[in-house]
């Protein structure tokens, strides 16, 4: 079974592709029943349908290929709850030879373009498009359907917009740290000016600068620079923020009179077309007005500035898609969300301080930002953090609202770097129609058959706490619901969903069960889209060969990694490692073939054999072993793992290693110290770092300039090949990984050596000229020997 091909069709990866029918059978699997869902995965065959989906009146499932259809009566039976639903008049021409796209067996995923404004955004402008006058298999051939990036199939004007559509617009509030050094501040200003030039003319923009005070710029006042100033040391509520900015009284009065609230035209949040000159002027005027005392850090009120930005968007009723983008170069030293005192004699918190309770500000600041997370979710606002500093900036405290809103986090060294410029430009990139490649205000709803219960989700989402009969009492991560909120998502955003089996009425082995994911979001043109992915799998008897054959060890490793970091944020690292080891021993004992008390007889079948290896590298990874990592770096690593798909997660857990030599094209080699050789080049990719490692002989030839000699053309090509491949990886990945070039035995080689399996150490008796890693860590072979010995015990 090719799980990668299935993912390309469904957008889903299952840890188990056949499920037991009982709770006892599920618990014996050790690895939980889970699905890695990429809601907006790019597909080569994804139809965009210009009409509303047909929804079951009982369970709210959307019409899909697994539904039974009575063509004469124009009735379809829901495959989830077996409720009978009538087709509308627009489906009057339906027949076996005239099917709507959503019933085609090959379309497990379809996307609907909703032709109306949501009732909370404005008047209903539905144009009456249904299946019969939008698309059908009789009037449009399959070959003419849109593939790849979805585009309209009818009923729309150029650019995919329905003529007369009056929808909401995106809003962006830029929050700039004025305490940066002059060169860094100039780099941020220049990039923001470029960003605003690329924004759609109707996009709303706002500007806030902060140091010891928070300054909100009035972009509609052109006579001079006009700002509203907030004290950075005070926590200001949303109502107070709106009152000080003067944006609440009119709205409140209209509500009192029973009138529809109208967004006031305010100078703090204006369309680009109306304020581009004032915005440019305000950007150029930003500078720090605070005096930094010797021996102290700058007075920086990041938390207060963020709270004011959220209050501004709440007051302006921009609840259809907005981003708050923070640009900072240091930790908050003042007000809510403070990370460290301004006195430089007080060191910023470390992991040891967090464990021992020596970080007095950490708990209070996290509590403040967690409250902010709920406000962001309610207002459909995304929080992004761009931090460039040689020290920590407080990303660990900010991780909560950034992750729950689906925001972007970048930790770098300099704002003048290409890494920052590339990240910002990637976020504001546009598609071929000129729309931003941003998706806002998303919700994901899960529908299952009656024998399946939803436990929760791990990823950049927030539980909406909506319960029904398929929601389990057992919660994992964001649980207690069948519906989740996402501030934003991309084509790569992946969420892990967890399930359990309800065996009150035991399902029949061999019968099918279904899971449907319904993702509603706002496209870059701010039109509403709804993507529906439906997948079916079969029930199987406990200990059935179908269950073992359907095990996806790559997905299982990704899911266990998410569960591990979820635990690591709540328990001590040693307790997490113990939990991982216990789970692995139970797993190997359950699925291994062996003679009891005979470790040498232990074997794992091919679709289980790599899983222990993944767990070995996960134990040694920066996700679990935080030695030599700051809390900010750990928060960043956790945030990135929690939103990556299976392939990206595996690269983080077990990095890839390719060998380049004169013998032929590059080949993958074992992530082992024995792969290092004097006459080869290694390309190492750990997702966050890309290392080009030159063997000692290759490095010596390069230093002597042999590659410049036309007689040594092969050496030149050998040196170029890994650099081209590394640049390709760096270009495709956001945030861009750090590119490191190093020679064998050099100090920078530590980035590679730290991740390799230490099969040869200072304690090895037979070295055979191999590179040595000075460590007391267990090698993979020792780890497997211990695992086998423990697994075969009675």
TrEMBL record:
It is a peripheral membrane protein. CDD domains: Sec23_C (cd11287). Residues 169-426 form the Sec23/Sec24 trunk domain. GO terms for molecular function: GTPase activator activity; zinc ion binding. Residues 440-540 form the Sec23/Sec24 beta-sandwich domain. Residues 666-752 form the Gelsolin-like domain. Gene3D superfamilies: beta-sandwich domain of Sec23/24, Sec23/Sec24 helical domain, Severin, von Willebrand factor, type A domain, Zn-finger domain of Sec23/24. One of its GO terms (biological process) is intracellular protein transport. The keyword Acetylation does not apply. Keywords: Cytoplasm, Cytoplasmic vesicle, Endoplasmic reticulum, ER-Golgi transport, Membrane, Metal-binding, Protein transport, Transport, Zinc. Pfam families: Gelsolin (PF00626), Sec23_BS (PF08033), Sec23_helical (PF04815), Sec23_trunk (PF04811), zf-Sec23_Sec24 (PF04810). Residues 552-649 form the Sec23/Sec24 helical domain. InterPro entries: ADF-H/Gelsolin-like_dom_sf, Beta-sandwich_Sec23_24, Gelsolin-like_dom, Gelsolin-like_dom_sf, Sec23, Sec23/24_helical_dom, Sec23/24_helical_dom_sf, Sec23/24_trunk_dom. GO terms for cellular component: COPII vesicle coat; endoplasmic reticulum exit site; endoplasmic reticulum membrane. Residues 53-91 form the Zinc finger Sec23/Sec24-type domain. It is found in: Cytoplasmic vesicle, COPII-coated vesicle membrane; Endoplasmic reticulum membrane. Component of the coat protein complex II (COPII) which promotes the formation of transport vesicles from the endoplasmic reticulum (ER). The coat has two main functions, the physical deformation of the endoplasmic reticulum membrane into vesicles and the selection of cargo molecules. Belongs to the SEC23/SEC24 family. SEC23 subfamily. This is Protein transport protein SEC23. It comes from Salix brachista.
